[in-house]
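Case study 2.
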Amino acid sequence: MNIVIVGHVDHGKSTVIGRLLADTDSLPQGKLEQVREMCRRNSKPFEYAFLLDALKDERSQGITIDAARCFFKTAKRDYLIIDAPGHIEFLKNMITGASRAEAALLVIDANEGVRENSRRHGYMLKMLGIKQVAVLVNKMDLADYSEEVFKSIEAEYRGFLEEIGIRAKSFIPVSAMQGDNIAAQSSDMTWYKGRTVLEELDAFDEKESEADSLPFRMPVQDVYRFTGSGDDRRIIAGTVESGRLKIGDECVFYPSGKHTHVATFEHFGAGETPTEIKTDMAAGFTMTEQIYIRRGEICCLSGEKTPKVGTSFVASLFWLGISPMVKEKNYLLKIGAAKVPCQLKEIISTLDASTLDRGKKDKIDRHDVAECIIECSKPIAFDLTSEMPKTSRFVLVDEYEISGGGIITAEVEKTGISDVARDLAMRRNEKWETSSIPSELRAKRFGQRPGIVIITGHRYIGKKAMAKELERELWDAGRQVYFLGIGNLLYGVAGEIKVEGEIPDRYEHIRRLGEVANIMMDSGMLLLVTCAEFTANDMEVLEATVDTEHIHTVWLGDKVTTDVVPDLAISDASDRDATAVRIKSFMAERGLIFI
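Prediction:
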């Protein structure tokens, strides 16, 4: 079981661990004597914390900088115990240390009482989804083993924890230096009738069985391909966060909604191939139906509770960046294996780092806790922390530095046309019947990769003539290509929404264009689509319907007159032959046609 110990600097976390190691005979032979001799040579009083604080600068400053890890065991089970730093400057290290813990011990100095970091660390445990918490009121020997002091701290901190949604399993008065209530009951605190620290550790529930019973979640870390010796396996790889998956199970990937069945489980090296994978296993499996899956999607088991999918969510966020988090600035969100650009859309409330008062500001300062709405540039799959803690956690990167992290507490109501398009596309993917011919075989035969090239620009710049000439050249070169003007849809698959005398619903035209393109690209086709003055909103709807990597935009004209950012801009398109050469070269660079 993974246990993290947190608390304000100098409240005695490392001493608690050192005492646990000593009292359970878990130290290497001679280690205790070695540290005692080191203290004697340096004329320093012996401290149990020195058993852990191996770094030179930690010993000289008397604080824990990194997260030290060590092992010990009781009659019941083995423990990995993590000593997380308490100093405010090392909160990032504390979060790293605590992120994989199943339970926590939170240490408070009986003399100093509840400090700011005591509260901050409580928030961190809440955000990390750690529900099993025991509070150790340490250094009771310096408070004359006073029951009144202990009860006062317990009342104050228990109230704080319950306010943020944590119910502590117990409060234990201890003296780590003297060994009181660590491994044995204290003779100086006969008024305390509860468990010792070791007994409380053994009373914690193991999460493994709980995680195994939750819906299956495996973020896709990568998709491995092997081409040697005729090996055509495509292996979906990742680490299982919860649940179980067996051979033959149908799995669905989100946010795309694509589905397949598990054919085999694969592994490296010697050993028996598993027939089932479960929580915390690093795993890989092949598919019976070959589908295109990207890193960052979440693999789920069909029939179980599905994750949320969207571009916005409500989060409880802790900010660690030197510069404050502000609106209209781009950040990188990392959740599972997904990395998506995002922005701060709204600050609902903040908790001030210095006063711990709640309020509302126009920015999130360093060490602030905030409830806010985050908006991503692309849809992501996620769970709510109340349901699936591991797949609700995320971090935020600002200028290449991890500067914040948090948990997703609620989804934002979907209102936009792109949300509707995305939900329809996901439903389509869930029901899609895959072809028996893999896309790789089509690409090999046709010498191309499927894609949609949007040729756009001013209304009268000659896009259709250009696209048709390019279509002929690609066809003559043996490509499977088709010209599809947006007007072709207006009187066909979108005919019922083009009513004479009314403005046609452009967004629905684009969505239906995406659906037609999706079918044609599944057959391996290259599509040349012309559309006047394509916009960023158009792109958003199309990306909700078609995989983003299949979309490529070319703007013809000396000035881009919409808010779209084209992949290729050709200012002078008067020479059709030269323009066709440029677009073909662009398609080759993008890997759409193989030369």
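The first strand starts at residue 2 and ends at 7.
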